[in-house]
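S., here's the first fold you wanted:
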Amino acid sequence: MKDTEKKLLEKNTAPTSMRILVYDFLSKQPVALSLTEIEAHFYKADRVTIYRTLKTFEEKGIVHGIQENNTTKYILCHDGCDEQTHKDWHLHFYCKLCKQTTCREDFKIPEKAAHAYRIDEIRLFAKGICEHCLQEGLQ
């Protein structure tokens, strides 16, 4: 059994051909991508099938969706996410110059806090200029 199939089965997700293809594609992406950007890679695939795949992945804790203006961008979750809780406790950073969205693991929200309620999801989003664009002098 391939590694991708195993990961999907561990998340209670049937490893269909499209799911394997989308998972493998996303696993190689350093930035979050929109449905349109993902669809462009699979030019012969049905948009609805890709959308349903992403929604299933989101429900199963395989990807998290990042709201950016009026668009959702998708990136693989860390292994700690599941159907109940996305452990997406870090900053999502959008560069206004290169227009890329990345997960910034160096900026985390403490997961363990003493309170009498359960937090299932936090969305932390920032806009600015990434280190690459700053180094290139594009600011």
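And the second, which I think is the more interesting of the pair:
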Amino acid sequence: MKGIRQHVNPLGEAFMRVRARRLERPPGLASECAVEVELGCADADFSFELAERRPDAWVCGLEIRERVLVVNRARAREHGLKNLSFGYVNLNVDMDQVFGEGEVDRFHVLFPDPWFKKRHQKRRVIEPWLLGVLRRQLRPGGELHFASDVFEVALEAMSEIEDPAIDHLGFRNLAGPWSFWRGNPFPAASRRERTTLRRGQRVWRMRYRVP
């Protein structure tokens, strides 16, 4: 997306105020339809493809950069994807405002910013508060799907999700404890995933289910 910043500091003062709003299901979708949510969706290629392939599901893309949301909403209108919604969120500040308890079937965290510099690593997405929010918003049997092309980032996320201190949340690794999932089980892929595979590199993927 030309002219749009690729990265913002989610801990910057401008983003620390709670501004996210509840997302409402688009008209025409069944009340019991599956709800798939991409966190930090950026250009949302994954969400667009998923919405096209699963027209009976409500697909949501959440993003902190509001100019990106404007572009994505216009693109969804152009493609006639009435089951695709976009909303603002700062994941570590106001994710608890977007969905109610037990409303989401699956969260997707795909190729989040790695924030390699040590002083920036506190900006990484997966942390205990967010995991608690996601757990409350997942339906019984719901899933958290994480993927990265950076092993360090994937391993750190795994260590947060499988930390014994939050074992009460009930996240269970579908590949087994401390194991990665091979291949993409979903009928969609992000632009970053396609680029990674074209380069012959590996995608480090985890899938967690809750009771």
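Why I say that: The longest strand covers residues 138-148. The domain at 30-209 is CATH 3.40.50.150 (Rossmann fold).

Talk tomorrow,
H.
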